[in-house]
Amino acid sequence: MHTLHSHMCQFTSWALPGALEQGWILVSVFPSAGCDSGFGLALASRLSEAGLKVFAGVLDENGAGARRLREQGSQNLQVLQLDVTDDGQIETAHRHVHSQLHNTGLWGLVNNAGVLHCPADAELHPMAAYRLCVDVNFLSAVKMSQVFLPLLRRSRGRIVNMSSMAGDVAMPMLAAYGASKAALSVFSRVMRLELSVWGVTVVTIQPAGFRTSSRVLIGQWAVDEIVSAASSEAREDYGMAYISSLPGRLSQMSRQSAEDLSPVVDAVCHALLAARPKALYTPGRMGWFLPFLQRCCPARVFDAVIMALAGHSDCKPAPPCSSTPPQKNQILSSFSMKDTFDIKVPIL
Predict the structure, then answer these.
(1) Which residues are part of the catalytic machinery?
(2) pLDDT (tens digit, 9 = 90+) per residue, 148-202?
(3) In this structure, is residue 212 part of a structural domain?
(4) How far is the CA of 312 from the CAs of 252, 315, 317, in angstroms?
(5) Torsions phi, psi of 270, nearest 5?
(6) Domain that holds residue 222
(7) To which H or E segment does residue 281 belong?
(8) Whole-number CA gyration radius for the chain
(9) For residues 38 and 211, what is the distance between their CA atoms, to the nearest angstrom?
(10) Which phi and psi (to 5°) does residue 47 adopt?
(11) Is 341 domain-assigned?
């Protein structure tokens, strides 16, 4: 656990001169109902404890996460009702932030909102799941950036976008989530080029697997949604036993994910305050290695590695006998990769 003194020593050792007094930082915390942890909450707490001024935008201002932030009793922290998919709430938050800045400008915007639908094959993901992931994980960051950029230009501040390794490396079961994060990563790179003329810095955080409070939509209703959206042919080909097993994949993913969020929080703090922030941060186990391996390996070899690391459950789809695909063991044996890549990796 970091103490207030260690936070201040850490920041002041490398922070941009005057950055701690430059202006407010708006963090999109966006916890799900009843949640009191995650990147956004940990970051807002860390920054406010270190003496920085923070607006913490939350999905539910009466939720456990918002209450936890208020209980800190910090004069540097303001909790705002902010559903980043609601244009009206974004505009209301903008008016409030603008009224508090007194012409000093907004130093930082952290787009951290995220949602993960029930893990499922891309064919089985309902279109509603794709739209939700795109709305929350990508379009919300676009809207927030457009609304708050005039204030960021005034201070030549920073935009930090929370992407994911799944937006760079294709991960089975995460098509909707990964595609939305890939869009965010490309948006960030384009904005980094375009806004450099204004002196505004845009940074992408691309974590590997961490156990966070991103809104996760699972349960029997998710299975029912998948079943109702899938074609009759898909339901028959995959089988109900396989479809019903999909929510259990999240538990498997969670077990492979790191509980300590400090590498991500440290990366965001550095991105916000360092004199020379990186364009891309890849905190977490395999955060840099898997994207590097993907660029260096032949596609068939890397596909076999990812399928092994993804750790699919024993419950498999039930395709028609005439179109039975090769089993995972057969694919792996053709490359003799089992001994070489005998590792476990989080897949978010």
Answers:
(1) 177
(2) 999 999 999 999 999 999 999 988 989 999 999 999 999 999 999 999 999 999 9
(3) yes
(4) 9, 8, 11
(5) -65, -40
(6) 4-335
(7) strand 280-281
(8) 21
(9) 8
(10) -65, -45
(11) no
